[in-house]
Amino acid sequence: MSFNLDSKIPAGDLSQKWDKHKFDSKLINPANKRKFHIIVVGTGLAGGSAAATLAELGYNVSAFCIQDTPRRAHSIAAQGGINAAKNYPNDGDSVKRLFYDTIKGGDYRAREANVYRLAQVSNNIIDQMVSQGVPFAREYGGYLDNRSFGGAQVSRTFYARGQTGQQLLLGAYSGMMKMVAKGKIKMYNRREMMDLVVVKGKARGIIVRNLITGELERYAADAVLLCTGGYGNVFYLSTNAKASNASAAWRCHKRGAGFANPCFTQIHPTCIPVHGDYQSKLTLMSESLRNDGRVWVPKKQGDNRKPEDIPDEERDYYLERVYPSFGNLAPRDVSSRQAKFRCDEGLGVGPTKQAVYLDFRDAIKRDGLETIAGRYGNLFEMYERITGDNPYKTPMMIYPAVHYTMGGLWVDYNLMSTVPGLHVLGEANFSDHGANRLGASALMQGLADGYFVIPNTLGHYLASTPLEKITTEASEFKDAEEAVRIQTNKLLGIKGKRTVDDIHRSLGHFMWNEVGMSRNEAGLKKAIDGIRKLKEEFWNNVNVPGGTGDFNIELHKATRVADFLELGELMALDALERNESCGGHFREEYQTADNEAKRDDENFAHAAVWEYTGPNSSPIRHKEELKFENVQLATRSYK
Amino acid sequence: MSSENMTLNLKIWRQKNAKTEGTFVDYKVDHVSPDMSFLEMIDVLNEKLVAKGEDPIAFDHDCREGICGMCSMMIDGKAHGGFKNTTTCQVHMRLYKDGDTIVIEPFRAQAFPIVKDLAVDRGAIDKVMMAGGYVTANTGNAPDGNAILIPKPIADEAMDAAACIGCGACVASCPNGSGMLFMGAKISQLALLPQGQPESPKRALNMVQTHDTLGFGNCTNHAECEATCPKGISIEHIARMNREYLKAAFTYHEKKRSEGGA
User: Fold this and answer.
1) Quick check: pTM over 0.95?
2) What ipTM score was computed for the predicted complex, to two decimals?
3) Do A142 and B190 touch (CB under 8 A)?
4) CATH code reported for the domain at A269-401
5) Domains along chain B?
C-alpha cells in the first residue's frame, strides 16, 4: 500500500482535540510568514475565506478563479442558510448536538473528530460574518433570527433572505478585496487549473489556462490549496453552475491525491423538474420551503385533476405518513428516495409524471399570505419565472436533482491530501458529511475550513517541512505544461461529429439512470461499460472547433468532460464495491423491509480511498477505517 | 401567447476580441420551446454552429438561476431584456412569440471592454470594491453575533442593498455608463449597519474617487439603472451614498500619525 492514510486525529477527549492540536502545532512568526507563498485555487466560500485569512496573517497569496470575479463562485447559489450551534432559540442545541446530528445525518460515514471541530467553529463563523456586515435576518429586537432545516429538531439555521450563500460569499469576497488592495493577495481571474505540479513529492505549483487568451501559465508556491467545489456536473444536469467542474481535483488525483468515496452524491429533494432535452441545468428550491410546505402526491394513479381540486383525503402526504417525527423535514437522501418511490409507483404528477407537489395552501391559511411571502417571496417569484406557475395559488412541482458531492479528495485532520503540501478545502474534500450532507451544512463547512482550520494547520506544515527554493523553470513545470498542451492539441485535432455537450449528456444519462438515486450491481456494471465506450467515442469523435489562441468556450468544456468521463467511471466502480446502502448511496440489494438504507458497519465503516495507477490500469481501493468512540452506531431513524 | 414551437430571428453581435471591430450577424433558430430559458435558446444555436464547424457565440453565464451575476447581454436594447427583477438566464422564451426578431448585444460601457462576442470584462467592479467595499474585520476579532443588535427594519434595508449581484446592468443601462447604483448599494449597506460605521467616511470618499477614474460616468438621475436592476435595487441607495460622500467630504480628514512605540 503506497498511500499513507494516517488521519492524524489528535489523541484525547473529543471536545479537547482541536484545542490541543492547535497548541501542539508549530507556529511561524509574523515576519517569517511573508516569506511564504500560497496558491489558492477556487474562490468560493472555502477559497475566499482561506485566501483572505492567510493574507491577513501575512502570507503572500495568489488566488485563481474561473469566473470574471471571485464574487461569482457557486457558493453564491446556496439559498437557505448556514447552521451553527449558538442555541439562541433556547431549544436544546449545543456543539455536541450539532456534531451528533451531522454524524447521524451522514449515516455514520464521517470522521468524528472532523465533525466535532466543524460544530465547534460553527459559532465563530456566525460571529465573523456578522462582523463583516453580512445582513443576516433579525428579529424585531435586533437579535439574529433562526429557522429549521432537515435532519434536525432544533432551529439552528441562520439566513439572509433566500440569499444566504450570496451574502456569505460577498462577505468572504469583501475580505479578499481588502487584501487584494493591500497587495497581499494577487488575484487571477478567468483562469482554469489544468494540472498540479509536484516537485520532489510535494505540491509546489499549478499550470493554468488563461481562458481569455488561451495561454498556459505556470505558478509556483510553497503550498497549494484546492478549493474548487464538487463534481455534481458529472451528471450533466445538476443544480451546479455551468462552470463547476471536477478537473482541478481530478488532475490532482492523477498526480497522487487519493479520491475518497466518489460515489457519495447528494440528490436534493426539492428541485424544479426536468422539462426538455434542451435543458442545461436544474434549479433548486430551498430546503427551507419544507418548513412550511407539505409534500404530497395523489393517492390514486392517473388522477389528472388540478391539485387544488384534489381533496385532502385523496392526498398522500407521504413524508408525514412515513416519518411522523420529522415529517416534511426528513433529511435530503430520505426525502429524495421517497419521491422516487412515489413516482416509480406511478403516482408522480405533471406532464412527465416525474414530480411531486410541494404545497403551501395550509401554511398560507395558517400564517397569512403576507407572512409566507415574507419568508419565501423571492423563491416563489423564481419558481414562477421558470415554470410560469404561481405557487401562492397552485402547489409547486418538484423532483430530486443532483446537488452536492460528499465524496472528494481524501484529507487528514489538517486538510492535507495524500500529496504533501496539497490541501483541500470545502466541497472538494471528503471529510465532514459522510454519506449524506444535512441542509445548511455546506456553507458551514466551507467557511470552517477556510477561516478557522487551514490558517492553523497550514502554518504547522510550512514550519515543519523543508521547502527548497524553486522556480517555474523547473523541469516538472515544463513537463506538466507540455502534457496539457499535448492534450489540448489532441482535442482540437479530432474534429469528429458529436459536440461536447452531446457526449456530456450521454454521460449524464448513464450517471443518472445507473449511478443516481438508486443503484444495483447490474446497472453499475452497465454504466462502467457504457462510460468506457463513451470515453472511446469522445476521444475519436468529438468536435471541438477553434484553436488555442483565444476565448474558446468549446475547448474549456471539452477538457472538463474528458475528466468527467474518467471520474464517472470511478464513481460507478466505487458504488459497485460498496456493498451496503448508506445515506445517499442506495444499493437496491441492501435495504430494509420498509425500503430504508441498510448499512453494513462490520465491513464498510470506512472511507474508500482510490489511488490512480495510470490510464490503462485499474485504480486501487484503500481504506481508512472510521472509529466511532463517542456516538453509538445505530440505524438511522427519522420516524 | 407563445406557441409550442417557435422560430426566431436573432441579430447577434459578433466580435472576435477587444482589438477587432464587431458586427451584427443574423441567425434563425427554430424549434424553440416556450419553456426554454434565453440562454438555452442560445445553447441550441451554438450546438448547431459547432456541428457546422463554426465558432459558437461566446457569452458569460454560470449559475443560471439568477444569482451569480455572470450573465449579461443587452436584449432588444435593454440590459437582461428589461423584464422586472430578472437576469438574462431567467428570461424564458414564453415571453416571446413565433417569428419575433431579437437583437442581442454585449453590455456596452466605457468601463466594460468587450472580451469576445457578448462577453465583457467587468473587472472595474472589483476595483471599486477594493477601494472600500468591506468592513475591516480580520478573522478572529469578532464579538458574539448577538452583541451587535440591529433593528429589523435596518437589517432589512441593508439586505435590500446587499442583494446586488454585481452584474453591471446598471452601468450598461445608464446613458452615462455610471456605476453609482452598484457602488451606492455597497456604501449604503455598510452605512446602514453599525459594523460599517468606523470606515464609513473613508469608504465613501475612496470608492467614489476610484469609480470616477475607471471610466464610469456620473449619475444624472435617469433611473434607468433601477428599472433594469435584476435585484430591484432602488436609487435611494445612490442618494444615501451622496449623503455619505458629502458628509465625509466636509468632515473627514485623516491625520498621518506615527504608530511606533517603546
Assistant:
1) yes
2) 0.96
3) no
4) 3.90.700.10
5) 6-116 (3.10.20.30), 122-251 (1.10.1060.10)
